[in-house]
Design brief:
By secondary structure, chain A is mainly α. Chain A is built from nine helices and no strands. Chain A has one domain. The radius of gyration of chain B is 22 Å and the shape is extended. The chains are: A mainly alpha (about 250), B alpha+beta (about 150).
């Protein structure tokens, strides 16, 4: 019964599957991103009081959401590695950290840029901003921790533990605006009606950008994981054959 | 599931739950300290002392903004949580979103008269985004949204 589960954990299978589906993912991502960005940044009407500058939310909200989603994903794969000792799960968790750190940095930077014209400050130590900054430190801490180990397995285990400990930060980020007084606004409740606050014309573009950024994240994750697979499996037969095939193709082209 | 896998699963759960409980207890102990501002009601209950530097947060009460001085650079207004009001005095540039009926967070201290002498004014906006047309039709359809004291 568990056989398909362990088969999914095969790095070789992951490599050949992603070979096939990666181009499709790129096209879908380009499609979603272009629609979402053009719609959100240019076409949708300006906000009644913030004017044009609220449009930065079309980058800020999807990146902030994905930054948390990426952390949750990294922690799940870390748990998968710890419980079942699946090497591929650790490779994916390793690939998550630098992408998640970058996305968190983008969310913080766009938030600052939005804060100057609206709040009148680019930073305040409120619960939402501080807990998000802690998430950035967790990501960078996990990257640093792994590079501090010579042994791949020891580094993987240490990072898995730190990733799991950091999960506690996710509900804090999510509910910070409800549990405490913050300068940051709460989460919008989206409306299906066109005559209410947060109508579809406001949030639909954000969904397109959101899924577009998710696609970009998956592309980056897959590419990083593939590199990690080649690096760790470099002494295996199938990687040697792969390298030979590439070399032969290059020679015949030359 | 094999016995040693169950053991690993237990370790994972222990890490997540253990960290969760530790952080929850810390946050519970800090509780009020995490709030980025005091409300007018908390100030009226004497939670802050005169001269102590802190932030006040609330709504700019409708009809309470008075601008004085050159180009209206000195501004006085009432910050309210709909239960209590605190008079805030400030001179300097205001953020674009500062207006009556909007959220405001001010940095400063109470003087001897109980007036909050602000050194910085920040605007707090809500999470409702819409076009001017939608806002106009909403305003036409219902009464002006007046806050109520929630106590």
């Amino acid at each position: 019964m568990w056989q398909w589960f362990f088969k999914l954990g095969s790095p070789r299978l992951f490599y050949s599957m992603t070979d096939r589906y990666l181009p499709w993912l790129v096209w879908v991502t380009v499609f979603l991103m272009s629609i979402g960005l053009i719609w959100g940044l240019a076409l949708t009407p300006p906000d009644y009081q913030m004017g044009e500058n609220y449009r930065i939310a079309y980058i800020h909200v999807p990146t902030a959401t994905l930054a948390m989603g990426c952390y949750a994903m990294m922690a799940c794969f870390s748990a998968g590695y710890m419980i079942w000792n699946i090497k591929l799960a650790d490779m994916i968790a390793k690939a998550c950290a630098p992408i998640g750190a970058t996305i968190t940095a983008v969310a913080l930077a766009t938030g600052s840029l939005w804060g100057i014209p609206t709040w009148g400050t680019w930073w305040i130590w409120d619960a939402r901003l501080t807990s998000t900054l802690i998430m950035l430190f967790l990501y960078t801490g996990i990257i640093a921790l792994r590079s501090a180990f010579d042994s791949v397995d020891s580094g993987a285990r240490a990072c898995a533990v730190l990733s799991l400990v950091g999960v506690v930060n996710l509900p804090i980020i999510k509910y910070s605006v409800e549990w405490w007084q913050t300068l940051h606004q709460g989460s919008s409740s989206l409306s299906l009606s066109n005559t209410a606050a947060n109508p579809p014309e406001i949030w639909l573009p954000a969904f397109f950008v959101g899924f577009g950024i998710l696609g970009f994240f998956l592309i980056a994750l897959i590419l990083r994981t593939r590199n990690e697979i080649l690096l760790r499996e470099r002494r295996t037969q199938w990687v040697a054959e792969l390298v030979n095939a590439v070399q032969r193709r290059e020679q015949s082209n030359a | 599931m094999l016995a040693h896998r169950q053991q690993k699963l237990a370790i994972v759960l222990f890490i997540v739950l253990g960290a969760g409980i530790a952080v929850a207890l810390t946050l519970f102990a800090l509780k009020e300290g995490i709030n980025v501002f005091f409300t007018p009601t908390e100030i009226s209950e004497g939670e802050v002392e005169t001269g102590q530097n802190f932030r006040i947060g609330g709504m700019v009460k409708m009809g309470s903004v008075i601008k004085e001085g050159l180009d209206g650079a000195e501004v006085n207004f009432l910050a309210t949580d709909f239960c209590n009001d605190v008079l805030v005095s400030f001179s300097g540039p205001l953020p674009d979103l500062f207006r009556e009926g909007q959220g405001v967070v001010a940095d400063g201290a109470l003087d001897n008269n109980g007036t909050f002498q602000a050194t910085q004014i920040l605007a707090k906006h809500d999470e409702d985004y819409m076009s001017a047309e939608v806002k106009a039709s909403l305003d036409a359809a219902e009464e002006e949204d007046v806050g109520v004291c929630q106590q």
